[in-house]
Structure formats: structure tokens, C-alpha cells
Amino acid sequence: MDFRVFQTLCMVGAFIIGGISHAPSHAQTSGFSGPPNFSQMVEARLPAVLGIVATGAQPSRQDLAPELPPGFEDFFGLPRPDRNPQNPSQALGSGFIISEDGFVVTNAHVIEGARKVEVILEDERTLEALVVGSDPATDIALLKLEGVSDMPHVAWGPSRDVAIGEWVVAIGNPFGLGSTVTAGIVSGQSRNINAGPYDDFIQTDAAINSGNSGGPLFNARGQVIGVNTAIFSPSGGNVGIGFAVPSHVAQRVVEDLKDDGQVDRGWLGVQVQGLTENIATAIGLPDTRGALINQVVSGGPADAAMLQVGDVILAANDTDIADPRDLVFAIADLATDEEAMLTIWRDGAREEVTVTIGRMPSNALTQAAETPLPAEDDDPRLGTTLSPLSADLRAQLQVPGDVDGLVITQVTEDSAADRAGLVQGDVIIEAGGQPATNAEVARDALEAAQENDRPLLLRIFRNGNFMFVAVNLTEN
Asked: Does the annotation mark 426 as catalytic?
């Protein structure tokens, strides 16, 4: 899927009170269950849905969601067009009240960088809101209206139980129009659109557009089952593919933000990747289920528990781990200092390891660039040209001082390395489980893999990240 056509939903516009959309009339005679319309439910919920105006300095392109796929930033709170650059920029979105004392839920990107946040009620009153906290990882933010009471509010609903084909209703502020209601069905569950590590979106065909960011997605009973966040749109408008953060994710984040303005997540201190058939074969696993550790953070919980690079995490507290995404969610839900039992695959056998969960830190690995480098050692069987990692090359590739290995300076087209996805600038750290201190180590590992009729397992450093790559030599 080309994620350049994904767009978040916050944009600029003026607020106008809009109308109400009803479900198709033929639903009454189709023989399937469904309300004849949503008018009563919508009438009761509209007062709790808000327009949001976030005022702040004009953001740079780099400030617009740097961790999202290309294209998301196109509607990521763009500044209001203004010929006077001295005027502050404004971005518009949606939100909804969840308590009578004025707590408001919206998207993190709607209020990102704002110096002032205001909400516009359904009766066109404007109130100032304080930002309690935001969580860019899930794109959820919590606001508070000061000095209010007895506010109309909505309740959370069970998003895990939502069925594909179930009726849903979206209310929000598309294109700055104000209170606008659309209806549709749930088109998919647990969608991963590569927006972040905690992707678990509800997909819907209810018409949502730019400006719906932060608005509620209701079930037919009027419960909030999602927070509208993104659309898939080649044209910029609705094409029937929208995404909402499910309520079981949003509700947990909101409660954490309400407590102290930040979200506490469990942390294991590893970097993991999925298993390919070649990698599974190389380490003796019968299938590709699990999360392969390709880096252990020094001093982190996994390091303290003696987890190792090359271990495969198969289960966490009796919850099977099918892929890295399963592990991310399983660990994030655990409390700091809680003990977890991990089932791992190490050296051809299952083992149990107890780890004390830490708190997720805010820092991230630095991204590095690929740079053409001078060649020194060729291996036609692998299809690469290798060079020792000198001080100059380390500086060019921005490789940390504690990373050593061989730099791939050239990859032969359609070679074993090319088919495995190796690229120029990759640093081979280990070959066949041995530190790649020189080209001889790599050649020995290659020959051993050929003799055992197994793929050659390499651990590499690329763009600030560690990963395993299995090179299938039998296809050469």
C-alpha cells in the first residue's frame, strides 16, 4: 500500500453549523437489523462534540509528524493561509467531552505546538481549554475546560467487541464546517497503517474528512468506540476508507494522561524484528512466529534478565507472540516493576526467562545515512563488496562507537545479498553468530552455512537500527 496517500484529518476552515445524515432508508426493509435512522442518538450526542481551534507558531515541515509515513503531514495541522506572516497560525480539528467537569479528548496532532487551544461548542460558544497531556505514539490528547460543570458528555463503548459490518456514526468538524454527522459501517479491525508502534485502528467507510481529527466514532447505541484520526485518500477527500483509534486504546491513554499528564508504558529494552522463513530455518525454528531480538539496550530490563541478541520471544505471560507487534502491545500493557515470564527460543531450544518490566524512555536511536564507500573485499558467492569500518567510514555513516563490523560498499544486482535485501551502507556486525571483525570471519560463516545447507544469518546495522537478515545461498 502506498502510504503517501494517507492523510491525517486536521485542517483549517471556518465553523458553520451543519446538518445530520441518516442511515439509508432501505435498511428498514432489507431483512437485516439496523436502526431506521440515528436522529435520536445524534441529537443527544451533538452537544458533547466540539470544534477545536489550536493557535500557535507556524510549524516547519520537519515538525509535522516526523515519525509518520510520507503524506500524513499534508493535513497535519497546516497553518491558516495568511498574507501577513506576523499573524499566528491556526489549525482546526474536532473533540468530545467525556466528563461533566469538562475533560475533552482529541488527537495529539490537532494541538501539537499550540500556544492557545479553544473549543467551540455545538451552541457556538467558545471556551479556552488547557492541555492536560498528549501521547503522540497513539495520537491521543486530553484537554480540560476550566470553570465548568454539568457539561454534556459521552461514554466509552467496547471497541474490542465491534463486528465488521456494524453500524457506526462519525461526528466532527470536517473542512471547518462544524457539527457534521455521517454514518457507515465498520470495514475492518486492528488495522496497521505504519503510523506508529501502537497501530490498532478501526477502519470505517463512514464519510470522514480533513478536520474530523479527534472527533468521536459512535456505535449505534451512542457509545464512543473510536477517535477518528486518519484517512486513505489519493484526492484529499473522503473515499470511504477512514481510521479511528479504538476506544480500548484511547481510554487507557486518557486515564494515564489524566493522572499525571503522561503515559507510562512497560519497557523491555530490546529492538525486535519479524521472522522470515530463511531466518527461521537458519536458527532451527519450525515456523515464523515470534519476535527476534536484534538489539539489547545496555542496562535495560532485558539486559538485566540476560536476554541476548538472537533470542526469539515466543510468549509473554502465557500470551503467544506471533510477531513484533504482538510483543509491543503485550509489554506496553504491563506495569513498571511488574515481573513477566517470557518464553524464548535460544540455541535450538525453548527456555523461560523472568524479566522485571521497566518504564518506556522517551529517547530514540539516531537515524544514519547510506554513503557510497571505497571497496576492499569482494565475495561473489554473497554478492557483496566489503570494507573494514574505519574511523572515516564510521563518521560518514554515523555509526556509534560501540558498533563494529564490515561495511557493505556494493551489492551485485540479483545476487544472494540483493535478494535478501542487503544494501550499500549496511554494516555487518555478526556473521553466523560470530563478530564480523574481518572478511575472513564472513567467509568462514558463509562456507559453514553452505556445508549445513542453511541460509547465512547476518546481523546488521542500518540507519540507526539493528536487524537480522538471512541470505539464502542455495538460490545462487
From this structure: no
